Amino acid sequence: MPNIIVRVKSLANEPENKTPICVNKSVIESIVARLYRTTRLPMMLGIIGPGLECVIKQLFSYIAHTPLQSPLRLHYFIAQASDLNSLAQLCQPFDVIVQQLDDIGISAVAGCHRVIGFDGALSIDVHIGQTIQALKQLTNAEQTFGAWMFSNTQAPKLDHPLAWQLARLSDDDASVILAASPNGSLSASMQQQLSNVTQLCGFRLLQWPLEPLSEMTLLSHPDPVSLDIAKKERAALRYQQQQTFAYNPLKSATEGNTAIIGGGVASGCLALSLAERGQALTLFCMDNAPGQQASGNKQGAIYPLLTPEDGPLSQFFLQGYLFSRQRINTLVKQGYNINHDFCGVLQTGHDARSAKRLHKIITARAWADAIAKPLTGAQASAIAGIEIGIDAIYYPLGGWVNPQQLTTAAIEQATTLSDVTCHFNTQVTAIERRNEQWYINAQVGNKQQAFGPFANLVLANGRHLTDFSQTAQLPISGFRGQVSHIPSRFALKKLTTVLCSHGYLTPAHDELHCTGASYIKDPDNLDYSATEQFDNLDKIRTSYQADWTQDVDISGHSARVGVRMVTRDHAPMMGCAPDYDAIIDTYQTQQHTKSSAQYWQHTQAPIHDGLFILGGLGSRGLTSGPLAAELLAAQMCGELIPTTTPILGLLNPNRMWMRKLIKGKALM
C-alpha cells in the first residue's frame, strides 16, 4: 500500500498578535530533499536527544505552509518526559500539537507515543527512556530512516552498539547529521571518533550549523568496501530480529484498495488513520449510520487499564489513553461536534478484594499525578461533588465521550482526506479469497449483493468478528452489556466526574446519566432486561453506600444494549488474521517438544494473506481502539509501527495459540 500525495490542512493557529512564523525555507528544503532521495516513502528522520527543538519547530513551520509529496515521520528519542517541556514551549503557535506534547510530558509514561499533526502529513513518535533500548524494541519495516540527527551534547553517546541499532533501521544511503552550534563545537578527537563509528556502520557524517542555520557539509563517508560490509551486517541484524519475532507476522497490505467491515470506533478510527496516509477505502456497515452497535452508548468512559506490573498490557493502555485524548481534541478542533468532557475518573473498589487490588496498583510504582493519584474518601468526595466515602484512584486526564459522535467524526474526516466510500445497511454474510483478491457477499435490503475485488480486507465488525469461516476459531467471546439511562435529579446533579467501581456512572449530559453495564457471556438476545436494569442499580448502591444512591431512578426503563467482544487477557486483537486450519495442520507434525518450540519461534506463523483483524476492544474500547487502529494502519502501509515488539506480541490475533507453541506446550 504505497503512500500518495498528502493533502495538508494546517492545524496550526498563528499567535494572537499574528506574528508570522519564520522559517529558513531553503535549508529545510535541503533536508526534505535529502530524505526524499535516500529513503522509501514516507520520509523518516530520527532525532536523538534534546537540543534540537529549533529544528523541529522549523520543520513544523515548513509543513504548515508547504504541501508534502509524502508524510514526514519524526522519531524523537529523549531520556525523560520533562525533556519535552522546551519543545512544547517553543512550538506554542501549533496549539493542537503542543496539547498532545503537554499530555505526554506531564504523564511521564515511558515508551513510544505518537503525535499526529497537519492531517497526517506529520507524525512525531516520542520515545521516552534509554535510546538504545527503545531502538531494540522497534521492528524492522519496509520503510526505513533516511537520516539521524544528533546535537553536540548528544553526539558523544554515538558508540558502536547505538550506531548499529540505527543502521538496522536505516536506508543503505542514510546519513548521520551532527547539528552544531558555535557554543558547543566538538573537539577534533571527538569528530574523528564519530567519523570512525559512522563509517564502520555505513553512514555518511554531515555537519549542520544551527547558529545561523545554513547548509550542511560532508565530514566523512564510508569507502566502497566498508559500505558493502556494513550493508551485509545490517541485513544480518534485520534477519536476526525477524527470526526471533517470526511467530508474530507483521506483513503489510497488498498494493490496492482496502475494504473495512464494521461501523464502530475501531473501523472509524482505522478509516481515519488510513485516509491520513492517502489510502482509498470502502467501508461496509450493517446499520444505517455509524456507531449503532457497541459504539452506540450515549457516554463511554475513557481511562487506562493499570496493572501492578509494568508490563505490555499496562503500557499499551497508557499510550492508548493519551492517544484517544489526542484524537478527540484534534477532531473537535477541526470543527466536529463530539460531546465529551475530560472531567476526570474516580475508581473505587466495590468489595475487599477489588479494593486490595486497587491499592496494589497505585502503590506498585510512582505514577505521575496526571496519570493516577491515590485519594482518601474525603478527597474523592470533594472532587466528585457527592459523597464517596472510600479511598479511590483518580485519573485527572480521563473522562467520557459520545462514541457514536466520535466514530461519525472520524469517518467524515477520513472522507475529506482520501477516497472513502461507505455502504450502510449492508450486512456482510461471507468473505472469500479468489485469485489473490478478496470478495464480499452481503445482504442489502432484500437481496444478496457481491462486492469486490479488494486487495485487502479488515474485519473490524465487533460481535460479528467470528461470523466467517476464516475467523470462527478466534479465541474471543461476546458479552452483552445493558447501560441504564437515569434522569439527573437531586444530589445526582452535583456529580462532576466519572465514577468507576462495580459499574460506572457518568456526570449528567442532556439531563441523563449513564450507568452499568451488565456483563453476560454469549447472549441469545439483545432485548431490554428488567433484571439487568435492577442489577445496574444494585451495583451503584453496593459500590457507594451513600444517600445520593437513593436518587438513582431506573423506573423509566430507559436503557441500551450492546455486545462487546472480550479476550481472555483483556488486550485487543490487531494484526494479520491467523490461518487456524494451517496452524492445526502444522501442529500435527510439530508436536510439543523442544525442537517444535524452536520451529514455532523462528517460523512465520500461517496467516490469511490480505486479511486483517481489529477487534476485541472489550469494555475499554474508547481507550484502546484509536491507538490499535493507528498501529494497524502503520503495519498495513509498511511503516515502522509506533510501539514495541512486546506490545505487538500482546495484540497479535494468534497470541493465545503461539504462547503455547513457542514454549513447546500442547495446543489442545
Radius of gyration: 26 Å
Number of domains: 3
Q: Helix share of residues?
A: 25-40%
Q: Give the termini separation.
A: 37 Å
Rough outline: globular
What composes the largest sheet?
A: 9 strands, mixed
- The assigned structural class equals alpha/beta
The average pLDDT score comes to: 91
At the third CATH level, what is the topology name of the largest domain? Rossmann fold
Output the CATH class name of the largest domain.
Alpha Beta
Binned strand content: 15-25%
Number of strands: 29
What is the architecture of the largest domain at the second tier of CATH?
3-Layer(aba) Sandwich
Flag low-confidence runs. Answer: 2-21
What is the overall number of helices?
Answer: 19
Short note summarizing the structure:
With 668 residues, the chain is an alpha/beta fold. Helix content is 34%, strand content 24%.
